[in-house]
């Protein structure tokens, strides 16, 4: 497939449009690996620099994703998440008609005063209260979407570290064993870039842009349930916020 060297449109943009058209026409399907750079050079009869520029732009736009040591893949498409939604990840995925998948990375007991002193204040506990640190990876299909670290008071939820192993949905576990369900949340959305560890978990490149969501979830009487920090690839998620004008 020849590019138009006489066109005023840069060659890399022509390659971008051709790859995008191939995706839209089903030649490359969501989750499928893109041909190698050398093969694309042969197909489009152009330089590796041109191919690489086109691919990097498509990665930045969220059309493609690069997995270190594996190659470049077509994204499944962005998920849309209401910023003020109260549902947990499992419920959200089920509402999309998908099966939730969560991998527990680590479960540890920590003491706020030795770890993060402000956590005790946020969770309305004293500095010596044992906390549960739960690190998980949430998937949509086979695509890792969220790297999450959550903190719970073990004085408020004793034995949670064992119960959570039976059911990865913390909200279902809390309702079943402690008769607690979320009623309020406070969220803060920040931007940051992926460290090496997080990039490996999310199958993205180090330095990729992320959404960092800090969330405090409470039940009745404004009693904290947990504080969480979630990291989501910016090219895979769109947050929406609906509001209305006062009359």
TrEMBL record:
Claim: Secreted is one of the keywords in the record: no
Domain spans labelled HTH gntR-type: 9-77
Xref: InterPro entries: Bact_HTH_transcr_reg, Chorismate_lyase_/UTRA_dom_sf, Tscrpt_reg_HTH_GntR, UTRA, WH-like_DNA-bd_sf, WH_DNA-bd_sf
Keyword Transcription: yes
GO BP of this protein: negative regulation of DNA-templated transcription
Organism superkingdom: Bacteria
Keywords: DNA-binding, Transcription, Transcription regulation
A molecular function GO annotation: DNA-binding transcription factor activity
Name listed for the protein in its UniProt record: GntR family transcriptional regulator, frlABCD operon transcriptional regulator
Organism: Halobacillus dabanensis
